[in-house]
Fold this sequence. Notes:
Blueprint: E1 11-15, H1 19-30, E2 34-38, H2 43-59, H3 64-68, E3 70-73, H4 76-80, E4 85-88, H5 94-107, E5 113-116, H6 123-126, E6 136-141, E7 150-155, H7 161-173, E8 177-180, H8 190-206, H9 212-220, H10 223-227, H11 232-239, H12 244-262, H13 270-284, H14 289-309
Parallel strand pairs: 1-2, 1-4, 2-3, 4-5, 5-6, 7-8
Antiparallel strand pairs: 6-7
Nicotinamide-adenine-dinucleotide binds near residues 40, 96 and 117.
Amino acid sequence: MAYPELSAVTKIAVVGAGTIGASWAVLFLARGYHVAVSDPDPARETFVRDFVTSVLVQRTPSPADALSRLEFSASVEAAVEGADFVQESAPERSALKRDLLARIDAVLPADRVIASSSSGLSVSGMQSSLRHPERLVLGHPFNPPHIIPLVEVIGGTRTAPEAIAWAVDFYRLIGKHPLHLKKEVPGHVANRLQAAVWREAIHLVMEGVATVAEVDEAVRFGPGLRWALMGPHLTFHLGGGAGGMASFIEHLGPAVQTWWDDLGSPILTEETRRLLIDGCLAEIGDRSAEDLRRERDRLLSQIVALVEASPIL
Length: 313
Ligand SMILES: NC(=O)c1ccc[n+]([C@@H]2O[C@H](COP(=O)([O-])OP(=O)(O)OC[C@H]3O[C@@H](n4cnc5c(N)ncnc54)[C@H](O)[C@@H]3O)[C@@H](O)[C@H]2O)c1
């Protein structure tokens, strides 16, 4: 199947207008596309327009042009009509996604790629009832997609390699950093890494080693700073000095192995939940989560700009 020339793409459908859909909409609008957003909840139209406006006013003195390219519809069929690409960002429920993707697949011409933002569902599972399963890919962003470059791309057992290649090229064209994964695993790569760190973060709190805020401090003022520049492997390669990873493994490998043996596997009981919720509320004090999100996004944009201007690799 020949998918559209990238230069011919003009309209993108964003299906599901929550946290992720609204952020994808900002990115696509900022890149000059017409964006049709669909969500069964009519209140999401105001949410998306307000979100798009609040982000775009910081980037352009006149967001009116971008806003004029944004349309909203409660009907998914209406939104995907004439779309050159669909980014699905509906709730993470497999039956809902399967039904929604089948509705999109039924009306969208076969030569258009559909990407799902799913954080953990497999493409192979989601594509089982599609007429054209070969055009479904995963396009898993990192929140917020209009700022964080990473998007994980993978197909299911029935996805065509051309659809994956098209999605990778398209995401690269719009300034994302697509990573084509080799194998489907629950949670993909980046979320599994986050889950691994969070698991031990919770364990440390439960064991009374540090509070919720102190564990966060350990990341913010320590490894988190390096992780913005390079991953865990290269960080340790540099930690090995002139001998690199070989020296690091020889020197610290046995110790790290004993730490691995001691890591926890917490269960999210009611008591653990309470500990984490109270810990977060204590950490933010009288700041609102919305206030912090806005400030985080402002600073994140600066970090991304800095790293992109002087890439270390
Ligand atoms: N929140 C994150 O950090 C994050 C990060 C990466 C990927 N994701 C993935 O993105 C997807 C969306 O997550 P979210 O956090 O934006 O969820 P959300 O709950 O904020 O938004 C989901 C939206 O989908 C709408 N919706 C419900 N039924 C629908 C339907 N039939 N058709 C279209 N829209 C429908 C809801 O009204 C809501 O506005 C999920 O698959 C999630 O795994 C989330």
